[in-house]
Model the fold of this input.
Amino acid sequence: MAKIIVVTSGKGGVGKTTTSASIGTGLALRGYKTVIIDFDVGLRNLDLIMGCERRVVYDFVNVIQEDATLAQALIKDKRLENLYVLAASQTRDKDALTTEGVERVISELASNFDFVICDSPAGIEKGAHLAMYFADEAIVVTNPEVSSVRDSDRMLGLLASKSRRAELGLEPIKERLLLTRYSPDRVEKGEMLGVEDVEEILSIRLLGVIPESKSVLKASNQGIPVILDDESDAGQAYSDAVDRLLGKDVEHRFLDVKKHGFLQRIFGGRE
Amino acid sequence: MNLLDFFRERKKQTPASIAKERLQIIVAHERNQRCEPDYLPALQRELLEVIRKYVNVDNDQVQVALENQGNCSILELNVTLPER
Done:
């Protein structure tokens, strides 16, 4: 049986899709058969981040409405053997996703995969609700910024009360914090909330801290999940997060201001 | 910036600590609301109607709060009567 992980945040633009793509890719890199589902019906973007936008023939809604089979709709990643993407539909019909339909697709996937990653849309509407409803674990993506932290707390409340696990009285969803777009130098100057501050406010376990990095935009421009850029700080931070997700005890990196070397200070180095 | 400003600046809170303080307050407030039972707003409305039969009070002069302490809950009703 697969582990079902939702990547959620409440607020938009904090890095849910970037995270889903990188965590999914990282799990596949480590040999786990993984599928990433885009729940953002009407605004599909996971395909672009994964670089498979021109290979979408059938989507999630087609499978739910039984216009296509899962085998037809799953897009196999070009780079990794174990990785698949299920694209969102571009329909404007808000009711395209149904609880029964999503349950059927997820349970079919769960019996064939090790991990099912649900990339949630922003907000707390139907798409976001269904993305987290069947989850075993949640990665709450948060920026060190007031509106994002508040929305994450709201999302935590929903995970604890409106999920299938909550409704059936099962063991609650395992919640983990992923702090993205983190700038240690701004934290040091007192301009940005620090990782301890956000942890204290949300009081959930920290999965990782992804530093603000030029490599994220560079990777999304090319349709390559940033975790595959193993020279970048963001890529390495995602890699650590995947190891922690799998239960490894990895020390947190990139929390302190980078010390530039003598030559780098004179000539300026690559970020 | 002169020297005096520099020392004044250091005493001030940083933007990050202001953010943290604001978040702690709003998050605590919203968490309390989350555990409130659904009937609380209706209860507050009806209580207000009863009180209004006898005393003329404003909408915002009645506060209803439910507090959980161990295995019992306390319903706290706070009515501010107008000055006589």
Observations:
- Chain A has a mean pLDDT of 94.
- The longest helix of chain A spans residues 146-161.
- Chain A touches chain B at residues 145-146, 149-150, 153-154, 157, 161, 187, 189-194, 197, 200-202 (CB under 8 Å).
- Residues 263 and 269 of chain A are 8 Å apart (CA to CA).
